[in-house]
Amino acid sequence: MCIRDSDETVGALTQRDGLLVAEQGRGEPDSLTLLAAREYHFVPIEEPLSYEVRLLLDSGPSGGTGSVFLAFSVELADGEWWWTDCSVYLESAGCWADPDAHLFGKDVAPDTWHTLRIDVEPDPMTFYYSIDGELVNRLEPFNAEALKTARFAPKIGVYSEDGQPVLGYIDEVRIGRPGE
User: Where would a tag sit more exposed on the chain, N or C end, judged by fewer CB atoms within 10 A?
Assistant: First the structure.
């Protein structure tokens, strides 16, 4: 599947040897290629939920400001948006939440697989972040009450901060109850 911006192909999602391969070509800074359906299905989180993905960022074309990620986009009841994500960069992995909260990070070796997970406990609305099986932080967002009635959509893809090409590999996507 190719992602186009007007007449230019800027990204592609393909399957290769059982892996989902996300490629972001040269484009505008602050651009991304997402695994997308015609419509995202936003749903409330009413029971504990775990979202886990194995990711690898290829250092070849990914010059330094790109990442491969898993995220939740969240539509709040008032029409506003919130997000949280975990990303693998060239030599680090980390998780963030809106607005601009850098929760944590850890050094990782280039061109290696990493398992990132976000667990959500809906009451109270708390997010738990893990990298390679290690719980690295938890967040009780300032807008926890609004998130309790929000609708969530999981996303995966690659991101380019400076518009340079990014190549990421995605494997073993799991969404379900924690511990399953």
Answer: C
